[in-house]
Task: structure prediction
Amino acid sequence: MKASSVHLNLLKPGELRSSSPIRLRVMLPIGAILACAGLLLWWGMLFTQLLMTKAQAQGIAGDIAAKEKEHAEAIQQRDLARELKLQLEQLDYYKAGVRSVGDDLSKLAEVVPLRVQLKELHFSPPKAQILQPPGAKIPLFGPTENVETQKLVIAGLTTKETPVVSLMESLETGFEGLITRERKINSFKQDAAEAEGRKLLSFEIEYTMPERRFAK
Amino acid sequence: MNGSVFDNMAPNAKRSFVVSAVLAAIATVLYLFCVQPAEDQLTKTKAELSDLQDRQARMNNDLKSASTIKKDLEELEAQLKPYQEAMLVPLLESYAMRAKSILDPLAIGAGLDNVEYSREPFRALPLPKPMPRQLHTRAAIKVSATGSYQNAVSFLLRLEKELPLVSLQQFDVIAQAKPERQSLTFVLEWPAKGGLTRK
Result:
């Protein structure tokens, strides 16, 4: 007779054990301990790093504080140098526009023909600067143009046209500092004045003067 | 958690579970109150350190270039000196009187008579970019006198020699009955201090 096997399960479900060699009730606390230890280690590393960073920052802050005064002076000097450079630039503009015509005016007296009597010689006034353009709320600090042009007007009396032509020819060379070649005869007419029993002729010539360029 | 499951657990498992729960709570506390703040503070401190390092580097660069700047400053001051010496500064608030004090010896030397000085409108100079704080201007002084054309030219030649930064803006000669007493007018320009572009 074949005996039948009976399998009795007397364990409660909670008393059942896993066949796995890794037991959860052992591994769970170990994992938790490792997590705590890891966190402590992490915190320790962060704290050490923080202390080192703070120490480094304090060192740099101390260095900055020590150099503060010297640095402030250096910055002040740098700003001053920048300001002086700009001032110099503007003054160089002035220098570039300086007109020096003494020699030319001196020569002018030598080239006036005998039959010409100069009555007037003048530079026209420079064009007015517009520092408050229409619509502008505040005035400008400087002109928008850096070039100025003026005219030299020579007026006089003569007996005939040839001395005037001669004067104009003489002025064609050697007077580059005073006048350009651009000229206009404003008038040439009979005058009320008389000399040697003859009516004199009056003339007025207008020369464009070289530009005054207020720029580097 | 289902209470019956916990109740049905073996005492060893129960102990293990409680210990694990307590350790997990400790780990959470450690993370929230130690690790996280330390990390935040470290980030902040690192940012501060970076700022300080940048500032230190800038400072060191500035200080390194200080000697060059000092040299530049000396050069600039030397270049500005002739302008500063030539600048027209008011004498008791009067530019014309300062011009008189400078020009009278030249006018007398050139033989000009009846010399009078008055102030003309000043003209602005073009502006460099960026604008300096202190602007300079073209101070104009009108000099009226009587004398011959030669006297006028002599005055101008002396002026150009003695005061090379003074410029002739306008010149008028009007003939009179006597050639040695022509009516002469000069408008002379000087560099002078102007306004401030900012305080």
